[in-house]
Amino acid sequence: MASKRELEEFREFLQVHDNPPKFRYITKATRRAWLISCISVWLFIYFVYANQQLWLPSGDIFKNKHHHNHPSDPTAVLKRCRALEAKVELPSDFVNRKRSDRFEEGTRPILVQNARIWTGRKNGTHVFKGDVLLDKGLIKSIGYLSGGSLVEVYGTSLRVVNADGAWVTPGIVDVHSHIGVESAPYLKGAADGNSYHGIIQPWLRSLDGLNTHDLSYPLSIAGGVTTALVLPGSANAIGGQGFVMKIRETGEKSPSSMLLEPPYQINTSFPNPNLPSRWRHIKHACGENPSRVYQGTRMDTMWELRQAYNKAKQIKEKQDSYCSRAFARDWHDLGEFPEALDWEALVDVLRGKTKVNVHCYEAVDFDGIVRLSNEFKFPIAAFHHAAEAYLVPDLLKKTYGKTPAVALFATFSRYKREAYRASEFAPRILAESGIRVTMKSDHPSAIDSRYLSYEAQQAYFYGLPENLAIASITSQPAEVLGMGHRIGYIKEGYDADIVIWDSHPLALGATPTEVFIDGIPQLERAFVVEKPSNYQRRPPVPNFDKDAENAVVYEGLPPLQPRRSEAGSTVVFQNVGTMFQQRNGVVEQIQIAQGEGSGMIVTRNGTIICSDQCANLFDIGDANTKVINLDGGSISPGFVSYGSPLGLEHIKLEPSTNDGTIIDPLSRQVPKILGDFSIIRATDGLQFASRDALLAYRVGVTSAVTAPVSTGFYGGLSVAFSTGASHKLEKGAIIQEVTAVHIALNRQNKYSVSTQFAALRRLLQDPSEGEAGVWYKKVISGEIPLVAAVDSADIMATLIILKKEIELRNGKQIRLTITGGAEAHLLAKELAEANIGVLLPSKPFPMSWEGRRILPGPPISPRTALTELIENGVSVGILSQGSWEARNLPFDVTRAAIDSGGKLKKEEAFALGSTNVQRLLGVQIDEATVDLVATKGGDILSSSSRVAAILSPVREAVFFMDNN
């Protein structure tokens, strides 16, 4: 109750106020309770805000009623800012994982026993014989494992594979591929390699164009490829982001499910700060590509790159400033985090979280990119293509951060000016300079990644050490991709991606017998070609030390013209192991000595004048006699190249160096000066002494047949010429002025296939009286072959019918040859009955819809197209599809012979690249004047040999390849 004094005070209050408030009198106790409650509320608010780190520096948490644009979730902001500073690191528990994140339920454990295992450790030198256990998508154990003990653990679910001493390597890693975004067969509806909407587009992602129905996936797997970095194309200075993927089909059958450690940004605009950072990849390009596509120059491209990085730098600085205030709890007017969805990938480059892969060829371009990296302080993962990298290794080492790796082709070169100084010795030279080397495919436009091992084999042949050659397609690209913690090696805890080979991985023709990706077998039924036991050993290779030195001394352009013997001089070849000659249109082995490898051949003016039987009549110590020791080598006919514009071009993409493309009268009006129906002769456009021709000559491809370059139905007249000649007027330079008439029948031509056949039927039934008519009359009479570029079996079938019609009408057989012939095996019997020969590429690929039904050969099919045709009686030769490929014809012939599984004799293998090609293209040869190739250390099909000299009876000289 209130006291008397309190009641009196209350009455006085009522008397003073005219309109007193109507409220109950509040006692001291009530006021005390209210005060305590208020203080408690204030303390509670302070506690909550303090724990959320929202107190203001002034201490007045209600300083601004509306928080002056505070972040809506400050805690998330701080996490985001901390994530910006975090490095890309493995989760601490990754190395102890018990199962792969890519493991698919139902996958059986697999024990590979008795293997010769290349682990990748110790710089690729660690090899041992033992076993490998695969389970839960991982390599669970390596060493000497007891199958019996494991059966007790796994029971009948364990699959045991006896490698029987075969080589086992990690799965091949392709560091530069467009598989899935430039799909096979090529169709406009799946051409997603490049965007042409801007020279700078870091926001694009190859993942968004990844086609899961690309026909090349199983082919690449058949070559041992298990992982690839799928990049956008090189049209743009910044073409977009690339993604690392396993190329096996998954249960989900989606592009995302194929990815290996995808960055978390693929499912959200910005990364989850609670998750660890993962490597991202981005594609840059400099030089000719963006200049051509965007009609600019190198100056334009470099400015665009600098401008883009300056934009990214500004965004990064805004973010850093924002985070600096956030870390200081300065929330006043801070606002939201400065986002930039279109530039965030480039900002991540500057933060060291994105690996930059640069399409770059020449020193001028390397220099620009190196300066760019130092200006904006970001590292480069790898320079790709990098044709001149071996000439400027010290420049590459000036790149910001770690020296970039270099991703190379082995011999693919001179297709553009930037690649003109490329060298087959680049891999070894770069490795000797301490720079990491990876071989890559640029699939499918350059190299089919199925043959990525072939790139490593060539690099090894030309001097890259064995350990680094295998590493160049396994551990090194894995490291470049930032995936060296899980692929590229055979180690416990690594992904179960391994390949079992039928021979040493660097042996020409080495083919997988088993491929496992994530522990899942990829070859449902592997067809294995039996090979001799020596194929399991490291292949011996020639010594190219001097050649590699000259490549640098002459800045990529060493002299290629061989040294010619003096007129009238005698050249003696000692220790000749074998000799092959052309006789009656076939290649035969000639007996030259009683003891193997002890033969002697004596020549004068390029002609053999005697062998062992009369060699003792010559004084090999005479000053006018040169003696060459072939060390058990061989003398054989030179190979013949066909299928490329060899002799009509120096640099494919430089019009001023080429003969050009002929006019097709079916699709364009022919100028009046050419008459109604002219026909073009390749001989008129020949250019001698191109580097591609001379390189071919130096490896024993002594002649070539080349047709005019045509992009339509109508071809022209081909010519046969010497690849070693200096000019057209040199004796023996032109072997045959005209060899065949050429056409092309396909669905890429401007007019329909039926229209093309109507034109061909008219030409064969009623030739005009002009020059073209003269040559088509020769075709009708069988004097000269008609050579048709055809891939489709359907078109071939129509061609067979037309051939029969014309022959029935005229009573004479037409000599018809198919080139390309991707689907020729489907009509092997019919082609043989029609007496039609076929010139095939050595490495089939379903590039077009018309060629999608290829016969791939081992390990996918027991036969190749070549063996299928030969077994049905079809005459077959091998063609080269690019001028640069002519030099690889001996390799291609060797591989074809190996893939035949011993069904081809060595003489028949020689014919694939010589007599068969001549006959199918109408080259008439005086066999006594055929160029012969002298190889040292083995015959021309041996990986241990190299060409020592070429004997040319027509040119009346021996040409020495040592230039000494």
UniProtKB/TrEMBL annotation:
Transmembrane segments: 32-49
GO biological process: purine nucleobase catabolic process
GO CC terms: cytoplasm
Alphabetical list of SUPFAM superfamilies matching this protein: Composite domain of metallo-dependent hydrolases, Metallo-dependent hydrolases
UniProt entry keywords in alphabetical sequence: Membrane, Transmembrane, Transmembrane helix
Residue span(s) of domain Amidohydrolase-related: 427-513
Pfam families with a match to the protein in the record: Amidohydro_1 (PF01979)
One term of GO molecular function: allantoinase activity
PANTHER family: ALLANTOINASE (PTHR43668), AMIDOHYDROLASE 3 DOMAIN-CONTAINING PROTEIN (PTHR43668:SF5)
Protein name: Carbohydrate esterase family 9 protein
Annotated organism of origin: Crepidotus variabilis
